[in-house]
Write a structure and sequence with these properties.
By secondary structure, the protein is an alpha+beta fold. The chain has 13 helices and 21 strands. It has two domains: about 160 residues, Creatine Amidinohydrolase, Chain A, domain 1; about 270 residues, Creatine Amidinohydrolase, CATH 3.90.230. α8 runs antiparallel to α9, α8 packs across α13 and α10 packs antiparallel against α11.
């Protein structure tokens, strides 16, 4: 049994039972599906990669605390749609104590759940399963005084699972480091490959080719490859414009490796040399990024870090002539939001925007201090719209974000994406190394 599942079993206790479903395939069009993506909570507990499965976790059941309902083996279906583990594979390869065909789930439900005080199940995600569970509960309640005893408390297991996911184990950190390394190398490759006249889509292809060639199953999210003013669109994913001489390119791309996401942004000049105005904006963002990375450590809160990014970027906006006035007033009136409109980072893990609470008190919105084992991104940016009449002309259309992935430790932090260069000189050196060599030949 995976340690994650063991911890979950201990956490829910012996009077509880949990029902945790896998994801289903999603139709893309008619009879074709999107590439399957396992539900990260189910994956975290079970590691089982197939759709349509259900895990039933019953801590008091000494013989079979972990039952997995799976798609049964089926030669015809497997010829058409791919191999299945079946019940034997679920036990042998995924360490289920017992496995049954998924078709048996409904008829087994009452037998499994009756007698438990608490049911851990999240309503509102899987309609078919919701119906099965509701129908079980209503049927049993009418029988309650005779033979049945359905749970009187239903608890959403996600809070518990997400709290576990938030604190990464050593094994998880290793996988995240690998995911980060793959993404960092892909960004370096993009720096070495970019030149005027190429298309954003070609840079996307270079990055994603590297991901796949190095063991990543896919991207962690749709890559953002924005040349010139496309970099000022936060979620630009069209990635189909020509890269022009004299412009910057912003790349926000991360790998999905053995379930774990990396999330890196780098911004660099298409032709290998920053112009003076580009460099002025770039160095402001870089200094803020470094300060916020440094502030990502135990004891500091997420809110403090975000406020630091706002303060430093507002100062930077004043320096560039984008804003005028007292920093305090500009912050109070949220003037910075015209050029910096997103948060400075998020949790990272199985999901790109990973699980876990951001507040110690959800209602009062008290910000949560960083704790060892959390992985977060740090990603300040400045985005100056191309048609912004208030901005000095030389800065219009510049969009810059710099993003790293950071592990909080007991005594500081580890930048998982440190190998990806971000100092302007380093970037220029990498981009021009090949050119110098060929010119010397
Ligand atoms: N790439 C998504 C993000 O940076 O949050
Ligand atoms: Mn990103
Ligand atoms: Mn991010």
């Amino acid at each position: 049994m995976r340690p994650q599942l063991k911890n979950f079993i201990e956490a829910i206790g012996k009077d509880a039972i949990a029902i945790i479903p896998a994801a289903h395939e999603v139709t893309r069009s008619y009879d074709t599906e999107f590439k399957f993506h396992q539900d990260p909570d189910f994956y975290y507990l079970t590691g089982f990669p197939e759709p349509d499965a259900i895990a039933v976790v019953d801590p008091a059941n000494k013989k079979n605390p972990y039952t997995l309902f799976v798609r049964p083996r089926d030669p015809l279906m497997e010829t058409w749609y791919g191999r299945r583990e079946g019940t034997a594979g679920a036990v042998k390869n995924y360490k289920a104590d017992k496995a049954l065909p998924i078709e048996k789930f409904e008829s087994e439900l009452a037998k499994m759940v009756n007698g438990h005080e608490k049911l851990y199940y999240r309503f509102g995600v899987d309609q078919k399963l919701d119906q099965q569970i509701l129908s079980y509960i209503s049927t049993q309640r009418f029988r309650r005084l005779k033979t049945a005893y359905p749970p009187h408390t239903i608890v959403d297991p996600i809070t518990l699972i997400h709290e576990m996911r938030l604190h990464k184990t050593e094994e998880e950190v290793e996988l995240m480091q690998k995911s980060a390394d793959i993404a960092a190398d892909a960004h370096i490759l993009a720096m070495q490959s970019a030149k005027p006249g190429m298309n954003e889509s070609q840079i996307e292809a270079i990055i994603e080719h590297h991901f796949r060639m190095n063991g990543a199953a896919s991207v962690a999210y749709n890559s953002i490859i924005g040349g010139g003013a496309n970099a000022t669109i936060l979620h630009y994913v069209e990635n189909n414009a020509e890269l022009k001489d004299g412009e910057l390119i912003l790349i926000d791309a991360g790998a999905h490796y053995k379930g774990y996401a990396s999330d890196i942004t780098r911004t660099f000049p298409v032709n290998g040399r920053f112009t003076k105005p580009q460099r002025e904006v770039y160095d402001i963002v870089l200094d803020v990024e470094i300060a916020c990375l440094e502030a990502t450590k135990k004891g500091n809160t997420i809110k403090q870090r975000h406020e630091l990014s706002i303060e430093l970027l507002t100062e930077g906006m004043k320096k560039l002539g984008l804003l005028k006035g007292k920093t305090k007033d500009l912050i109070k009136k949220k003037k910075f939001m015209k050029y910096y409109m997103h948060g400075v980072g998020h949790y990272l893990g199985l999901d790109t925007h990973d699980a876990g609470r951001y507040f110690t008190d959800q209602k009062a919105k008290n910000s949560r201090p960083f704790e060892a084992g959390m992985v977060l991104t740090v990603e300040p940016g400045l985005y100056i719209p191309p048609d912004d009449k208030d901005a000095p002309a030389k800065y219009r259309g510049i969009g810059i974000r710099i993003e790293d992935d950071v592990l909080v430790t007991e005594d500081g932090n580890v930048n998982l994406t440190a190998k990806c260069p971000k100092q302007a000189e380093e970037i220029e050196e990498i981009m021009n190394a090949g050119k110098a060599k060929s010119a010397n030949k």
